[in-house]
Amino acid sequence: MPTYRLKYGKTREFNAQGPGEVVPFIAEKHFAGSEDEDRFMRRLAMEFSDWNRGTYCYTNRDRLAQSMMKEGLLECVD
Question: Residue 61 contacts by C-beta under 8 Å, 6 or more apart in sequence?
Fold first, then answer.
């Protein structure tokens, strides 16, 4: 199972079958993590954009994760 590194606030690593699993990983500790997933991903995209002025697509988990990788917030390390 690959290891991913999330660089948003604190740098954290987690194991997942795919990069889209970053959404539930963030939701575990996020104050708004109990929101509907679509609303939560929209909130994350706005937060990330404020964080580093990047562009984030949030139509589904995988698209958000791809955007995060493109903008340098998420990387596969193993």
Answer: 20, 21, 22, 23, 37, 41
Average of per-residue pLDDT across 27-44: 92
Measure the CA–CA gap between 55 and 34, rounded to whole angstroms.
24
Quick one: pLDDT at residue 9?
87
Distance CA(57)–CA(10), nearest Å, equals 22
What are the residues facing 44 on neighbouring strands?
Answer: none
* 8 A C-beta contact, residue 45 and residue 56: yes
The residue count for the chain: 78
* This prediction's pTM: 0.92
DSSP letter, residue 14: E
